Amino acid sequence: MALHPLEHSRNRTARLAALRRRLRNGTSFLIFGLVFSGATAIPIPTQMTLASRILGPEMSAGGMLPDFMAQWARQLRDGIQATQEMAPFMFYGTDWLAFGHFVIAGAFIGVLLDPIRNRWLYTFGMAACVAVPVWAAAFGSIRDIPWWWRLVDASFGFIGFIPAYLCDRWASEAEQLESQK
Known about the structure:
With about 180 residues, the protein is an all-alpha fold. About 80% of the residues lie in helices and about 0% in strands.
């Protein structure tokens, strides 16, 4: 049984509204994630001071953390303290890392405003997310980052890929529905 043209139009309009809501939410999640992860790159010495207070001098949370994690936390704490004392300018690099995150988040505002015309940003986001685990594996190995910490870093790529992929699909469907006008 075919739908009456008016009913078909209402269904299409409702579906477009649902897709636009999903696109807005998914894109907002991506923007928030980029801004949040960028913002955490700025106050690294402050974060480590706070972690030391919470985890204690042995960085073990009273023995609750496994030894390999506590050892890594101590190494981080000591390295960050030494850098803060001897070469605080090194943190300028993480300030620029944050800036990069903020700029990429800003680019996603374009897709928030027009997800069909700027759909290419979702493809860009997916490609960047696929590169995150590769980057973590390669440079983590060069920098002697423990394998388990590289998995934490790689997880950001997996987490970001999902909304970028879904938004790309939703934008494609919205484009098809809009072309049926």
